[in-house]
């Protein structure tokens, strides 16, 4: 397996829209959503809107059907499949919700490409209503990150992933302001792929000296595929070169050890009595 962890945001990175807005628009709840937006946190509002949708006799099947038609660039799925086939460890860190993400990934037949999905829990309750809860319970355990929304600090998630793997390089793909905090957690051996002219890109451009990883921007799914796979191949080539050097050095060391050991087995010369 390649020593590469590829972390994807979901909305406007894997898919080409915001999944929450897509569902609201397609089911006809945009006006109510916008009316309530200033009254509560986004994550809390999404849970409330799922209750509104349920109260209007719209079913889980209706939501699933809308999610199956979520727009996505045609080169994103091949990029994900190729990176997975090359042995990369693919993960998602998203402020969407688990139900939306899993439904879309299953429809695209790429869910098995990801080893982990970090997002807000989403599940169907006993009444058939979709519930959406925060990734971090900010009422009980506020973490106070000034860069992230109260329900999810992606920087904390990245730190946990970094602690769980050893000596692996990270490639982080994102677009939103919530992707800036995890970008700051990356090191100078890592890479960040911000979507050009989106909030993450703008934040990086304000002070690039704060960013330790290499920056490789992209604009659409085609550039995402080209840039991601180019980085993956470059890292893998470097790894193969380093491994070859280690093998060569080990063989040289072994040869020298054998030569010395063999020399030491020769009998000592005894003095001849005169």
Automatic annotation (TrEMBL):
InterPro entries with a match to the protein in the record = HAD-like_sf, HAD_hydro_PyrdxlP_Pase-like, HAD_sf, Pase_PHOSPHO-typ
Question: Quick one: which residues bind Mg(2+)?
Answer: 9, 11, 175
Any idea which UniProt keywords this protein has? Hydrolase, Magnesium, Metal-binding
GO terms assigned for molecular function: metal ion binding; phosphatase activity
Residues noted as binding substrate in the record, renumbered to the chain: 20, 95
Tell me its cofactors: Mg(2+)
Q: Which residues form the active site?
A: 9 (nucleophile), 11 (proton donor)
Q: Which Gene3D superfamilies match?
A: HAD superfamily/HAD-like
The family database entries (Pfam families) matched by this protein are listed as: Put_Phosphatase (PF06888)
Protein name as it appears in the record = Uncharacterized protein
Organism, as annotated: Punica granatum
């Amino acid at each position: 397996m390649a020593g590469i962890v590829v972390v994807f945001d979901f909305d406007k990175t894997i898919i080409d829209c915001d999944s929450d807005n897509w569902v609201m628009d397609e089911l006809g709840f945009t006006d109510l959503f916008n009316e309530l937006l200033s009254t509560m946190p986004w994550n809390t509002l999404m849970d409330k809107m799922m209750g509104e949708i349920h109260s209007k006799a719209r079913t889980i099947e209706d939501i699933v059907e809308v999610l199956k038609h979520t727009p996505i660039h045609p080169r994103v799925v091949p990029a994900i499949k190729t990176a997975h086939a090359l042995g990369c460890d693919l993960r998602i860190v998203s402020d969407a919700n688990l139900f939306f993400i899993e439904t879309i990934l299953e429809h695209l037949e790429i869910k098995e490409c990801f080893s982990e999905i970090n997002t807000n829990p989403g599940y169907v309750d006993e009444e058939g209503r979709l519930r959406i809860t925060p990734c971090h319970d900010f009422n009980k355990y506020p973490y106070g990150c000034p860069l992230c929304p109260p329900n999810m600090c992606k920087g904390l998630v990245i730190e946990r992933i970094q602690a769980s793997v050893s000596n692996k390089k990270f490639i982080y793909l994102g677009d939103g302001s919530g992707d800036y905090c995890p970008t700051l957690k990356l090191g100078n051996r890592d890479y960040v792929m911000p979507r050009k002219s989106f909030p993450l890109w703008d934040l990086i451009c304000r002070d690039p000296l704060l960013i330790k990883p290499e920056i490789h921007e992209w604009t659409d799914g085609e550039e995402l595929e080209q840039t991601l796979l180019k980085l993956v191949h470059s890292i893998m080539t470097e790894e193969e070169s380093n491994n070859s050097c280690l093998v060569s050095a080990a063989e040289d060391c072994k040869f020298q050890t054998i030569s010395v050991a063999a020399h030491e087995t020769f009998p000592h010369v005894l003095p001849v009595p005169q």
